[in-house]
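Researcher: I've got a protein sequence and the SMILES for 1-O-phosphono-beta-D-fructofuranose. Could you write out the 3D structure of the bound complex as structure tokens? I'd like something to compare against our soaking experiments later this week.
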Amino acid sequence: MIYTVTLNPAIDKTVVIDEYQRGKVNRSINTRKDVGGKGINVSKVLKVLGIDSVCTGILGNENSNFFLNYLESLNIKSDFYLVSGENRTNIKIVEKKHRTVTDINDKGFIVTHEELKKFIDYFLSLVDERDLVVLSGSLPEGIKDSIYGDLINLLKGKSVKVILDADNNSLIEGVEAIPYAIKPNVYELKGLVDIDEKNIGSIVKAGRDLINKGIEKVLISSGREGAVYVTAKNIYFSEGLEVPIESTVGAGDAMVAGMAYGIENGLSDYEVFKLAIACGTAKVMTAGTEIPDIERIKEITSKIIVKPL
Ligand SMILES: Nc1ncnc2c1ncn2[C@@H]1O[C@H](COP(=O)(O)OP(=O)(O)OP(=O)(O)O)[C@@H](O)[C@H]1O
Ligand SMILES: O=P(O)(O)OC[C@@]1(O)O[C@H](CO)[C@@H](O)[C@@H]1O
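Model: Sure. Here is the predicted complex with 1-O-phosphono-beta-D-fructofuranose in place.
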């Protein structure tokens, strides 16, 4: 089973405007609200790919029904540890004129040491060596940056594979624990290894350095520039496809879903990479954090050109 862990879920409020006017009244063209948070988004895309997962993590009880009802409507199993407080609402401003998305992500609820410990104990009782765990997203107040590293060490103790998608110090500390796979974007990678993010050779070298440390799969995304996949045996590159963009939010999560699907189903590195890119590309064609369509993912997969490096 695949478990996605979201420690700080979010309602994504997407506001589409023409152009942001600082200090003025901005009027929206349209808005939408999606159930989000990185791990939850991964589970949403896994469902579309036809594979079950369990959405776990921590959920604020005040507006928990918005999340739980939505996941139930998609037939996605959820098993969150509930804490008091409200899940955050993250604002995503889509500017049509500039074709940009600006994220304003809130902090979220506060988690006590005891609550975190109870969640970890419960979560560890669920998983065994047949499982794959996706750890992704930012941390709510009260949880230290060491959490992903700690969880990776505990999960490795149970021979559970982990895919990590985090940023800043939680990524740095997570990588020190050597997860099975990681999916940084180039900026997150730059926080791990000193790279020239415009230079593919520099990105590949950073990927290889991480493989040499013991991580088995390193998927580096670079928005519309495409992505690089470095494993012990292969190095692949693919350019981004020119597609109409609705919202880039969640493209990385869709990519992680493709990667998790591929690893869970024993696909080759080449197939995993192709599927991951197709999922990310299909996601940017949907509004907000709406789930991409499986037919579109298949169609894009057939158009992706993967180059071995
Ligand atoms: N503008 C775009 N045009 C085409 N493909 C894109 C675009 N943005 C993203 N993608 C696809 O999605 C993948 C993941 O995107 P990106 O590198 O932005 O992830 P990310 O920074 O982790 O995103 P997020 O944190 O918002 O989920 C890219 O490698 C690419 O395949
Ligand atoms: O604040 P974090 O946890 O880093 O990111 C949260 C978030 O931006 O990530 C998802 C897109 O990847 C959204 O659904 C959500 O709002």
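Model: The chain has a mean pLDDT of 96. Residues 269-284 form the longest helix (16 residues).
Researcher: Great, I'll pass this along to the crystallography team.
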